[in-house]
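Support request, please re-run this one:
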Amino acid sequence: MFLAVMLVSLAVMIPSTAHAGKKRDARVAYVLKNLRLKSDVQEKFKPILDAYLKELGDLKDPYKNLKDELQDAIDANKLTAAQCDQLFEAKQKQEEQEPALNRKWYAKFKTVLTTQQAYKAMKLSDDKLE
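Re-run finished. Output below.
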């Protein structure tokens, strides 16, 4: 029984992990295209950017997963008080941790990029992509 549950869990997780990887790859390409870096700088920066986006995604996953799990109740406007509290707390935890993560990676960006480029990279990383 436990093995069956684990296999089903993996089957559900693998497509979402692959999807997250594709979205991250698209965001990396978007940022790099808009920064217009020299090829040697881009080569050094790409793995740093990818690591930042992965860590940022990992930070956002608990709220996103909870929201996805409760999406039917959200759409039907039928969230319980406990579910509202769960969503609120998950989002607050994410938002409390993001500034420190962004500061850490901004400093790492500046080891390869100019300050202006690092700032632009952070802004581009936050752009809404379709």
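The chain has one domain: 2-125. The helical segments are 2-35, 39-69, 71-75, 81-109, 115-125.
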